[in-house]
Amino acid sequence: MILRSLLLFAASGLADIILPVYNGPPRLKYSVVPGYFKQSDLATDDRTYDALSDSFGLTDPSPHRWYRFRQNIYALNMGAPQGVRYVVLYLARHGQGQHNVAEKFFGQEAWECYWAMQGTNGTCTWGPDAKLSPQGHSEVARTSKAWKHEVPYGIPLPESHHVSPLSRSLSTLVETWKPIALNPPLPVCNELLRETLSLHYGDKRSKASYLRETYPEVEFPIEEEDPLWNFHRESEIGRNMRIKHVLDEILSNDPSIYIGMTSHSGVINSTLVALGHRPYVLQTAGVLPVVVKVERDPGWRGEVLWGKKESWEVPKVELRSVCPGYEPVLVSGQYVDGMGVWPYS
């Protein structure tokens, strides 16, 4: 049957057509639908507002708030034109990690100039693959409790989960949702949903075999070794491009309306840029819901805006001092006053 189809295809003359090279998922355009969550309002102070104690920021305070919300999202999708849909993203940040504790202890300058490229100071260990701190586990328990509190009011739970490959995010996902619901399909680990690419040792992920054994609730379509850690320091623009790429990939292939994404502050910041959302600093173990209009980008011509660098493009890793007065550390790319960036990422 397959051979016959190929012969018919060739006989029709269509075999002369050159098929386009696959350049990744179709580019999508995003816009935030305002009015549903307080965090989208510029009047909400992200330094003081606690959404976990306020129905995740939902503007409707009524007892039937989440049922009304579901109806509104359903109505938006029913009335959407061809090529447009509406989704709700639950952007979750991991709980406090050991690397967060270390950075606070050493201070940002000493952290960026030296300690981030280490894994321990002999007392505290934050690398490789920084784990949740005791406070981080407590923060995640509070987040899980906040979800449970809203269930009787009809909150729509995520229909799918996408998660960073780093342990602090994986632990946050499992500890948040295992007491509530982690139904099939399994949460999917996405290699690109990780913090800013760099040589920070706390951002070097564990081997895939260890992660599969430690988090059996999650699916891991990833390589055994971390392919991205021994890399240049990614610029903010580069990270924005990477996260836009992975967001397009997820929303091109995941038909869910309510989607959970558990990751890091940098990933969330870049996601908000891609969505056109106001800047919002999310506390550790916080959750930021966003109603998003998703539509095909008619201006997209198949160009690739982000891709993993080839080995010959990656700056050599070498031992050198990145800040005056600090001991040499293993770094690559351009490091200026401790804040290293590779401007073409």
UniProtKB/TrEMBL annotation:
InterPro entries: His_Pase_superF_clade-1 (IPR013078), His_PPase_superfam (IPR029033), PG/BPGM_mutase_AS (IPR001345), PGM_Phosphatase (IPR050275). Keywords: Glycolysis, Isomerase, Signal. Residues 1-15 form the signal peptide. It holds the Pfam family His_Phos_1. One of its GO terms (molecular function) is phosphatase activity. SMART domains: PGAM. PROSITE patterns: PG_MUTASE (PS00175). The keyword Isomerase applies. GO terms for cellular component: cytoplasm. The keyword Signal applies. SUPFAM superfamilies: Phosphoglycerate mutase-like. This is Phosphoglycerate mutase-like protein. The lineage of its organism: Eukaryota, Fungi, Dikarya, Ascomycota, Pezizomycotina.
